[in-house]
From TrEMBL:
This is Serine protease PepD. Residues 303-377 form the PDZ domain. Coiled coil: none annotated. The lineage of its organism: Bacteria, Bacillati, Actinomycetota, Actinomycetes, Micromonosporales. Its EC number is 3.4.21.-. The chain crosses the membrane at residues 39-60.
Length: 391
């Protein structure tokens, strides 16, 4: 620090500090460049040992807690070989998973014993034990019938009755706590509606597949075991395979709208037929009517129009020709005659004889349908009251 009062011309002087009092020994001098002692090594070693001890102690404590069930009972119980399965995730009732949860207890696997036995599907329609399935599922039953439920319980079943032409059958089981399905309205189904198919395809019980309504009133003819059947079916692209027969086709609200019955396949052999996205279900309105008749009388009535039909001759656009008309039958009573060409039935266009037969079978006896037909060069309409076959 400069001294403002110092004479700038005075020579500088060096002042030495006084020697400390003592025995006169000189103060030790330390070389600043000399290597220093490594004082940090003991500290690091102490940290490593502490961390090691903490790890061992923590591991031992965790192991002991696991053996005792862990925190809040979440560990592995003594003697268990694996973790407990996680609880099923909750889903809203209106979701597809919610619909599956609601419908599955009503869906059954049907096992037919005997030489021509096999596996099919069905569903409970009443709490007193009635089960709907396909006729062709139980057709070859020569032994016992068993119904297996979602929980794995199996009970014997008795055959109440069957209708080969509609391909429907009704079984009866005795079991407490049965849950019946909700039946929908198949006449309200529209192309594009979402659908779920339940059943046991290839004996895989509890299988659910998803698709849409591909077509309604799809008229098909099926010949199984010499039995010719006509369907005005609900077509779906939901995966359906052998073993799905008799299972329910369900809408997005969980209501049964059809009974899975037939699949279309590129294979000519039924044993090798598989899903190609074209499956057919019997409309539930028809299945409900037939099953109620089977329960009441042991058999079902067949709906007829009272005419023998054939395809219209070449050169005409569509239509079904009435080859003969039964005297006093429904067609005759409505004024139809042999040679008339029916082009529409309740607004459904008809292209061949299968269309007319399948659509008539869909209706209940006593139903009134509007028929559009050609006679010569004129087009006419008539109201026909369908009837039950005399058989």
């Amino acid at each position: 620090m400069s001294d403002p009062w110092r004479n700038p011309y005075t020579q500088a002087a060096v002042v030495l500090p006084a020697e400390p009092a003592g025995d006169g020994e000189p103060e030790p001098v330390t070389d600043p460049d000399a290597p220093r002692a490594h004082v940090w090594r003991p500290v690091v070693l102490l940290c490593l040992v502490s961390a090691l001890l903490a790890g061992v102690l923590g591991g031992a404590t965790g192991y002991a807690m696991a053996l005792r069930g862990g925190v809040a009972g979440g560990g592995i119980p003594v003697g268990a070989g694996a973790l407990d399965p996680p609880a099923a995730a909750a889903r809203p009732p209106e979701s597809l998973a919610g619909v599956v949860e609601r419908v599955s207890p009503s869906v059954v696997t049907i096992r037919v014993s005997g030489p021509e036995g096999g596996v099919g599907s069905g569903f409970v329609v009443s709490q007193d034990g009635y089960v709907i399935t396909n006729h062709h599922v139980v057709e070859g039953a020569r032994g016992a019938l068993a119904v297996v439920f979602e929980d794995g319980s199996a009970v014997p079943a008795s055959l109440v009755g069957q209708d080969p032409e509609s391909d429907l059958a009704v079984l009866k089981v005795e079991k407490e706590g049965l849950v019946a399905v909700d039946l929908g309205d198949s006449d309200a189904v529209a192309v594009g509606d979402p659908l779920l198919a339940f059943g046991s395809p290839l004996a895989l019980a509890g299988t659910v597949t998803y698709g849409i309504v591909s077509a309604v009133d799809r008229t098909i003819q099926s010949d199984q075991s010499g039995q010719v059947r006509y369907y005005a079916a609900i077509q779906t692209d939901a995966a359906v395979n052998q073993g799905n027969s008799g299972g329910p086709l369900v809408d997005a609200a969980g209501r049964v709208v059809g009974v899975n019955a037939v699949i279309k396949s590129v294979s000519g052999e039924p044993a090798s037929a598989g899903n190609i996205g074209i499956a057919f279900a019997i409309p539930i309105n028809q299945a409900k009517r037939v099953s109620q008749e089977i329960i009441a009388t042991g058999k079902a009535r067949r709906t007829v129009i009272g005419a023998e039909v054939g395809n219209a001759s070449s050169g005409l656009t569509g239509g079904v020709r009435l080859d003969t008309v039964q005297q006093n039958g429904p067609a005759s009573a409505a004024g139809l005659r042999a040679g008339d060409v029916v082009t529409r039935l309740d607004h459904h266009p008809l292209n061949d004889a299968i269309d007319l037969v399948a659509l008539v079978r869909k209706y209940a006896p006593g139903s009134v349908v509007t028929v559009e037909f050609r006679r010569g060069s004129s087009t006419q309409t008539a109201s026909v009251t369908l009837a039950a076959d005399a058989q």
